[in-house]
Amino acid sequence: MNNFLTLLKISLKTNLSSQQAFSTKRKAGSAALLILLICVMGFYVSMLAYQMGKSFAASGMLDMLIMFAVIGGVFFTLLNSIISSFHFIFKSKDHDMLLSLPIKTSEIFLTKMTSVLVLLYAYIAPIYIPFLTVYFIFAGVNAAMVIYAFLGFFFTPLFAFAIGLLIGMLLNSLNSLRFAKPLYIVFFLAFIVLVMTISSNPLKIMQYLSGNSGRIISVASIVYFPYYLLSTAISANNFWAFLGFIAVNVVPLAALVAVSSKYYVKLSSFFARSAKTKKFEYKESANTNVMGVLLKKELKRLISSTNYLINSCIGPLMLIIIVIVNIFTGSLSAMLNAPILAVSLLYIAFTTLLNSPLAVSISLEGETFWIYKSIPVKPSQIITAKLIMQLIIFLPLSLIGTTLLCVVFKVEALGIFMLTLYTLTINAFGAVLGMTIGLKKYNLHYTNEIQVVKQSSAVFITMLIGLLIAASIFAPYMLLGRYISEVWYVAIITVLLAIITYIMYSKLMRTTSEQFNKIN
After folding, report:
1. 347 and 379 in contact (C-beta within 8 Å)?
2. In a domain, 281, yes or no
3. 410: containing domain
4. What was the pLDDT predicted at 361?
5. Co-location of 404 and 505 in the same domain
6. How many structural domains compose the chain?
7. Which sign, positive or negative, has the C-alpha torsion 317, 319, 325, 327?
8. Helix axes 225-235, 213-223, angle to 10 degrees
9. pLDDT tens-digit profile of 178-203?
10. 506 and 358 in a common domain
């Protein structure tokens, strides 16, 4: 038991800490950032849940709120288990070290699984709790029902977690196949298109849900039976239904734990081998240009990782998807009740600054970062190569999205010119911002790539700053739009961004050598 608690404490520290050193300030900062994100998400979900609650209360279909709480938590758990949890449990860098210790493999497996579940509970809380709280606001409070809802929170993700791990095992087994990476990317993009389509028509979706609540609940009860059991337990105060809900969630996970704990070493070894199918061959570079070699290395690193590639491209790809969805829904400008140039500023900023591969680029160098310090290359050259890499990836996609915006909404020539300049400028700003964050929030000793690409504080900080800047660009126009034309506003924003980018870039180049020396 002592081994389990010690390993769990270390595992949670590793997940929450963004840097190599677990200083009190850094741990507190990572925890505070996570809490802030959870609170922000919970706030928006609460507003949505309350609006839905009023509609469902009028139609007598409050069970829909329970469905959203359960299905939302399950869906997030399933995605997280497939994409992230599997890698942390079976493919972490610390496996060899842990397996060499005099600790049972079952304790190692349980430690990693528990660590993942703790974070999953933190992530699904802002989905589950608001919907159930709104349910009790409209349906009334009963002590037994509240207990069922409270305990249900801890059992809800278990079945989906087990299924997600199994799917992760299957996908990883197929990872060496030639079609695996393209197929993964296609499915991910299809999911993004679906989400954007749904979110672009909130009113129609709400009307459809209210008008078809009974049918939706019936289908959900058949497709995901655990939801039916928890819904029955809460709405009908049914103790036996709640026991059934516990059994359906616990038994599959317990079976998976029993088998995986027994064969944990073999499974970890198998999945580690499947990730190393390419034989390394030394090849002399035909390119003698330092910048060319560095840039080629950055692009190869980007393409070699599906998660890194998708996370890097998802922002500018979203702009293209948003415009294409708007062709069929016509809701882009109407949704915000603003002129199209102002809306374009918002969406270009949001999608460009949503993420940056440079925020995690330093971290992904891992323990090979020392090579940069041992070769006769200036740190400024390395940083420049990374900046160019992001622009090569982002600029074509962003310009395609901007062009589609201009064509679909028939923007005049001057507007097209200004939006193009704005797109170029904000991409340069995004690259410099991402690199600045990456040099300060690095983690060379991560245990799994997913931890850096999707869960690091650098990713969260980049996302938050991007959202704030996008809002800061759009909001002033809503206040000053009557006094200034759209084109002039775009010009002013572009000039301000260019000045800020130049200042940040100059400081970055001046301090690069000093910051490189601090990284170890």
Report:
1. no
2. no
3. 290-518
4. 86
5. yes
6. 2
7. negative
8. 120
9. 555 565 666 666 666 666 666 656 66
10. yes
Which of 216, 247, 274 terminates a domain? The answer is 274
Query: 47 vs 69, 82, 146, 447, CA distance in Å?
Result: 14, 29, 21, 37
- Please state the pTM of the whole predicted model: 0.71
Asked whether residue 462 is domain-assigned, the answer is yes
d(CA 18, CA 282): 33
Total count of residues recorded for the chain: 520
Q: Which of 249, 274, 299 is the last residue of a domain?
A: 274
Whether the predicted pLDDT of 391 surpasses 60: yes
Q: Report the C-alpha gap between 511 and 505 in whole angstroms.
A: 10
Examine the domain organization and report whether 54 and 183 are in the same domain: yes
pLDDT at 153: 92
Q: Does position 277 have pLDDT exceeding 50, yes or no?
A: no
Tens digits of per-residue pLDDT, 466-479? 888 988 888 888 78
Q: Which two tokens stand for residue 140?
A: 């009334």
For position 19, what pLDDT does the model report?
43
Q: How far apart are CA 185 and CA 171, in angstroms?
A: 13
The CA-based diameter of the chain, rounded to the nearest angstrom, is 74
- At 430 the pLDDT is 92
232 occurs within a structural domain? yes
Residue 8 lies in a domain: yes
Residues 251 and 299 occupy one common structural domain: no
Burial of 32 (0-12, 13-18, 19+ CB in 10 A): exposed
Reported as a single tens digit per residue, the pLDDT across 328-358 is 666 555 555 567 787 888 889 988 988 888 8
CB of 317 within 8 A of CB of 324?
Answer: no
Q: Which residue has the higher pLDDT, 432 or 221?
A: 432
Helix (H) or strand (E) segment spanning residue 157: helix 143-173
Neighbours of 44 (CB within 10 A): 11
With 0-12 / 13-18 / 19 or more C-beta atoms within 10 angstroms meaning exposed / middle / buried, residue 236 is: exposed
In this structure, are 233 and 296 located in the same domain?
Answer: no
Q: Which amino acid is at 7?
A: L
Residue whose entry in the numeric block shows the structure tokens 């016509």? 330
Contact 443, 16 (CB under 8 A): no
Same domain, 347 and 209: no
Residue 268 and residue 280 in contact, taking contact as beta carbons nearer than 8 Å: no
Q: Please, where are the H alpha helices in 448-485?
A: 449-453, 457-480
Q: Which two tokens stand for residue 452?
A: 């850096």
Report the SS3 class of residue 143.
helix
Q: Are residues 180 and 297 in the same domain?
A: no
What type of residue is 369? F
The tokens 């982002």 sit on which residue? 394
Same domain, 209 and 330: no
Q: What is the mean pLDDT of the chain?
A: 79
Secondary structure class of 290 (helix, strand, coil): helix
